[in-house]
UniProtKB/TrEMBL annotation:
Keywords: Membrane, Transmembrane. This is Transmembrane protein 131. Residues 1-52 form the TMEM131 second Ig-like domain. The keyword Plastid does not apply. Transmembrane segments: none annotated. It comes from Portunus trituberculatus. It comes from the Eukaryota. Pfam families: Ig_TMEM131_2. The keyword Membrane applies. GO terms for cellular component: membrane. The gene is TMEM131_2.
Length: 52
């Protein structure tokens, strides 16, 4: 996963740099938390970023 905005920081819930391959296997019609997103703006303005 990565974000397109420089102000949007992604990190795994475990805090590690890399996750186990098994954590990415999500069955159809299920959800699973994988990452934490933190937004740190340098100035007050409208911002747009995408997580892919």
């Amino acid at each position: 996963m990565y974000s397109t905005g420089g102000d949007l920081h992604l990190e795994l819930l475990s805090g590690l740099q890399e996750g186990q391959k098994a954590m990415w296997n999500i069955p159809p019609y299920h959800t699973q938390p994988l990452m934490r997103a933190n937004f740190v703006a340098r100035r007050e303005n409208n911002h747009t970023a995408y997580v892919r």
